[in-house]
Amino acid sequence: MSTENTIEKVKCLIIGSGPAGYTAAIYASRANLHPVLYTGLQMGGQLTTTTEVENFPGYPEGVTGPVMMEDMRKQAERFGTEIRFGIVTDVDFSGHPHKVTIDGEKQIEADAVIIATGAAAKYLGLPSEEKFKGMGVSACATCDGFFYRGKNVAVVGGGDTACEEATYLAGLCQKVYLIVRKTYLRASKAMQKRVFETPNIEVLFEHNTVELLGNDMGVTGAKLVYKKGTPEESLKEIAIDGFFLAIGHTPNTDVFKKYITLDEQGYIVTEGKSSRTNIPGVFAAGDVMDPTYRQGITSAGAGCRAAIDAERYLGELGH
User: Fold this and answer.
1) Which of these, 23, 53, 123, 269, is most buried using a 10 Å CB contact count?
2) What is the number of structural domains in the chain?
3) Are residues 73 and 221 in the same domain?
4) Quick one: DSSP state of residue 144?
5) pLDDT, tens digit, for every residue of 34-64?
6) Segment 259-285, tens digit of pLDDT
7) Catalytic site residue from 140, 163, 173, 304
8) Owning domain of residue 65
9) Is 131 helix (H, G, I), strand (E, B) or coil?
10) Active site residue 111
11) pTM of the model
């Protein structure tokens, strides 16, 4: 019989390989849960697209995202985690054990599942945006704003996140453009007040970014269109060194939504401060359940919690 059709049984299955997944793996393997971790499409998660990480404890000189994730992977493997390439394409959480399909063919039954599939930042979809990703284009001001001290940057978006990122960057940068495609901000009144009272933030209402400008060193400017599709339409260029997207994130939860309770944005809902989902034995950690903080360190902490919750759950089952 083909091994592809053989159902593999594991005690603890971890889905995702960012800080949450790897930290869960470190804790789970040290607790003798013999975890198997599937990396997903992007081994190491979003942090592998980040050049310099300076705000993760333990790296006084800073570290690149890929190196940090490689360190976490090695640490998880050191304690016995089995790390595999593969994507979860289907799940059946209707009974116990939990059934998971990898790459459309391999079947796994797991007593406990930790979901750490992360979230993907929404981008505008410009070719130049892709070209300068990690070279001036960022989706996290808290992560990357420090590199733009004293420089000019732009933030795209009109909601609370965009306003928060703009005011945060205003404390570091010389000038912050807030590019808003509508005639108003969607943010709360308090956030709007902060933006309008910050002297080095310039709000550009009814503007759309059509192209990013730059060279081998990175972003140097942005080409904007004002009042697109109207008789008043005009082009404008701004000189910037950093371009920050704040138009939302999409949690990677589609494959789980049939069974797992999600909020209106698609993030996994967990019970209180725990990592427990609505399905006993299924836990969630990191950006897939955290629309608020979205930091490597908070994801790592959530991964720790998920592994401890899984260990206690398995202990109660007598595994």
Assistant:
1) 23
2) 2
3) no
4) H
5) 999 999 987 878 777 766 888 899 999 999 8
6) 999 999 999 999 999 999 999 999 999
7) 140
8) 3-120+249-317
9) helix
10) no
11) 0.83
